[in-house]
């Protein structure tokens, strides 16, 4: 019976939730808190569920899993998120309580890296802007729509040479790009030039690609000073988290021509996107969709189910 299944509190909801629910209806009693405007404890009452019976949360970045939420669930033991990052979860409270955080790890790495390269190519060759240009083209009007430059030989500064950053580097090496990087620590297994300072990396780069997690230390790791160091020919690609970049300063730098362009899959205050970016042909925008493929969804569901199975069977 459904009442005998372990309750799974769903917040967000995760983009993969409908697929996950259809695949595992026999494993969990889904508590869809995202569909209710009630405070959490009141919602649980409507579900005839005592807070102490909730041992697992399934979430994404759309809803913060705060210390208050965690404290209200005394038996909580695992938070499974359908994201690679976990900045939407109060990790301090989780550590204090000994609660597991199950992320997707490297599940999305290849797909996110593909998106990073696609955004960069689009910005350099003005593919999206060219598409709009062609669709508005007046017959017999002379065609004059040059791209900015070529991709080959570009100096690529990767901020965060983890799983995703390494995949980005591998792809851009195939275009004869020069790879440099900044991370918390130098990686002795790679030959790329390491920079301990983001400002120095920006000064020596044509492109900055942000792949690192969002933490207190990395918030606004690309600020106005870094953007100015990147320079008028520089491009920023962000497939990490929106707040890695000072978005207000980015908008100003793009509008004033202080950097050449940007490819953005993430934004500081999602789902809000600064309207000033909409009319800029040197900006390519994507709705946090780097990993929104059916293959990724299926892999994500399996990964989350495996994490939950391991928890409930322990």
TrEMBL record:
Q: InterPro entries, per this entry?
A: D-isomer_2-hydroxyacid_DH, D-isomer_2_OHA_DH_cat_dom, D-isomer_DH_CS1, D-isomer_DH_NAD-bd, NAD(P)-bd_dom_sf
Is this entry keyworded Membrane?
no
Which UniProt keywords are given for this protein, alphabetically ordered?
Oxidoreductase
- Domain D-isomer specific 2-hydroxyacid dehydrogenase catalytic: start-end pairs: 51-291
Q: Which Gene3D superfamilies match?
A: NAD(P)-binding Rossmann-like Domain (3.40.50.720)
The superkingdom listed in its UniProt entry is Eukaryota
Query: Domain D-isomer specific 2-hydroxyacid dehydrogenase NAD-binding, which positions?
Result: 118-290
User: Pfam families under this entry?
Assistant: 2-Hacid_dh (PF00389), 2-Hacid_dh_C (PF02826)
PANTHER family linked? 2-HYDROXYACID DEHYDROGENASE-RELATED (PTHR10996), D-ISOMER SPECIFIC 2-HYDROXYACID DEHYDROGENASE FAMILY PROTEIN-RELATED (PTHR10996:SF179)
Tell me the protein family, please: Belongs to the D-isomer specific 2-hydroxyacid dehydrogenase family.
Q: What is the name listed in the Swiss-Prot or TrEMBL entry for this protein?
A: Uncharacterized protein
